[in-house]
Amino acid sequence: MNYTAILPAAGSGRRMKAGKNKLLLELSGKPVFIHTLEVFEQDPACEAVWLAVKQEERDVIESEIRRLGLKKVAGFADGGTERQDSVRACLEVIPECEVVLVHDAARPFVSQEVITRLAEAAQEQGAAIAGVRVKDTIKKEKEGFVSETIDRESLWMIQTPQAFRYGLLLEAVKSAAEQGFLGTDEAMLAERIGQRVQIVESSYENIKITTPDDLIHGKAILASRQQEEEK
Ligand code: CTP
Ligand code: MG
Hints:
The chain is built from seven helices and eleven strands.
């Protein structure tokens, strides 16, 4: 199933404490966002990639893309205050298509196989999101004490990519904007207009580079993949 990818890349990376957008930090010789873009570059089902970027970072991002000869980036939109605004800005400029896949530029280890399953599920069901089962026991707290232990069987940690039929995502995003609703992911916006969202099991490697320890984890993931290739 062919799709258009939207990559929000306009954050500040505050939790990384690097003094600049974490996506520009190098991970084994390449900026984080380039690792992410390369996954889509290599996926024949990806028709185009649109990036939401901060105006002042557009030149450096664009020149890196050009230098590496990446062909799939079709255009840019100005990122907004919230991630949701950045996604909306992209959605407003992309040409109409069948399936849109939203993916954090800060998740460079997403697998092609998961992307394929998400795009297919979105075409069939309308909406599909990547997630992994919760490994730890999860408890609710009240005033320092456990108030409840939640049944882990039904709990998932949700990631991106999140894939949608184009018209559905447009409606969900517009409705949220009109009513001032701020969600933590695109699926929430689809859920609130009554859409059923399918969960596609992803991998624990699909981490979001968020805090400094994620860079160490990220390097280890790349090193183990390299070793696998050399076998
Ligand atoms: N993002 C965006 N526009 C925003 C905020 C975030 O496009 N206004 C993007 C980030 O660049 C990132 C993805 O959304 O690729 C996930 O966001 P997050 O991991 O929270 O990144 P930051 O917001 O940059 O980090 P922090 O929250 O630590 O400041
Ligand atoms: Mg953020």
